[in-house]
Amino acid sequence: MKRLLSCKVSNPIELLYAKTCLKNLFKSHHATDKVFLELATMELGTNLLKYGSGGYLWFLLLKETLSIASVDYGVGIQNINTAKQKGYSSKEEKSLGLGLSTLCAHEAYQLDIISFSKHNNDAYTGSVCVLFEKASALGAMCSLSFSLYDSHYNGDFFVQKGRYLFFGDVSGHGKKAASAAKEIVNYFYETTFSAVAVAYYFKALHHYIMEKYLRSFVGCIVEMTEKSWSVYGVGNIALLSNQSGKYELLSLPDGIIGETFRHISSLHFDRGSHSHLILMSDGIEVKIALDIVQKMDTVAKESLMIAILHFAGVHDDKTIAILS
Question: In this structure, are residues 235 and 219 in contact, taking their beta carbons and an 8 Å threshold?
Answer without folding.
Answer: yes
